[in-house]
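histidine kinase
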Amino acid sequence: MVRSCMRRMCLFLFVIPCYPGGLNAQAEVDQTGPIATGPIQTKSIQLDEGISRLGGLTRSQLEYRLAEIDEQLQRLCPISLRSGVGAVGSRTAVGPEAWRSEWFQIELDGASPIDQIVLVPTIWRDTRAGLRADGFPLEFRIVVGSKGDSTGTVVARYTEKDGLLPRIAPLVVPCPSIVASWVRVEALRLSPRLWDDQYVLQLSEVLVFSGQENVALNQNVVASSGMRFEGETRHKRFLVDGFVPYLMDAKEGEKSIAFRKQGEMDDNPNRPLSAITDGRNFHGAILPTRDWINDLAARHKLETDRPLVIAELNRHYSRQASHLTRMTWLAALAIVGIGLTIFIDFIIRSRQLAKIKERFAADLHDELGANLHVIGLLGDLAQDAVDSPEKLKRLLQRIRVMTERSGTAVQFCTNTLDAKGLYTELLADMQRTTQRIMADQEGELRFRGNEESLRRLKPRTRADLFLFYKECLVNISRHSEATQFSAHLEAKPNDLTLIVCDNGHGLVDSPGDGVPPSLMRRARLIGAQVTVTHPERGGACVKLQLRIRKAWRQK
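Tokens:
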């Protein structure tokens, strides 16, 4: 049993380090580190849908996704804002209602194939939230069409659930290959501008790409409404003038400082004239406009997804830490349990050993002691029968039988499993023992009840009952100086009673309650109650009461 428990414990302790994350599970993910790979979809994913999608990923997949995002962010252009004052795009009339239609329509210079549309928000610095898109619509659609088609085709539609805000990055809208001569941005639900909470449609720039060419550049713009007192500051033409609020800051190429004319003071006047046309600015290479804008949009998407991935990873780590704590407690409980098991097993085995020693001593005393006493009595009778050969022969034969029984008894004492073949006929064995030991006393053994009840007793119980009775007879024969005795055995389905009486001088020398130690020991082994009484007429009566349990019945 102990070995089995130890094997289970070893297996248990082996499994714990193999648990996902093991003992080195990361408790929290850095929110600022670099991340992602694979094709980047420019349309933002609804936040709830993003969380739901990430919820189906495993810890390893989330860690891989986080590493992908960090890796790609290292390659993408950062969002750097221009300084100074310049064109800031255009806006429609302001109002207190959010649910109203406002639009900008760009008339292209003839029909052109369109594959991408970019909306650049007007950026405002909020005192609490920092940089934010100002007046960017919450719900809108993009419609394209040709001359003569005033309805057009809807190529994209966004709602508040798409999670486009907050943002400062451009929104890239991929379009199917379609030929159009006009593009319209229709706002269905407006957002409030930051400084007075009035609702307005406001954009910094709209770019319409056909390949690498911005076909909307410097084209005619029509608006649903305009501000009456703004004059030239937010003219509609600024919506397609090519100016955006970002500074091109590429992640590749060496920086270049433009040529300056002679005579101007500078820290490093040795600037080659080729710096004007080398395709580089102060931050590095000058990228194609479409590639640069796509980098900014991709960065916004990755920076939006990254906190979601981190939050989901932290949930995984939190659950893992909880599981690890639980497993640690289980391991500690298992160790304590195994220690208790070993301790209890030691106590049980110690008690078993003490019980075996006690039974062995009792068996030797009751079985061999009684047999030796009988052999001594038969020896005395044999001496008296020297002149009677026939009687002497019978006595010697009985002595021979008793020695053989003593040998069998020794075998039984050394191996309690051999009790199965002993005392199968308990009542007959008790009768024979009575005749041998009590040959000089007057009396008999009487039985009442069903003899089958005795046969159903387990061999060990039968042997203990027989030896108890035999010890009672030996005590009467040796010590009581009795001339008469009586024995009564009563067997019922659920209990058994044995009473042995004599007319001797009684058990006055026995300690305590008068029960001899040998009888008390045997009664304890059998699990019975034993009492001794002294009748007024003299002598002693030993009474054994045994309740027959199912465990003591032979199956």
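DSSP finds nine helices and 20 strands in the chain.
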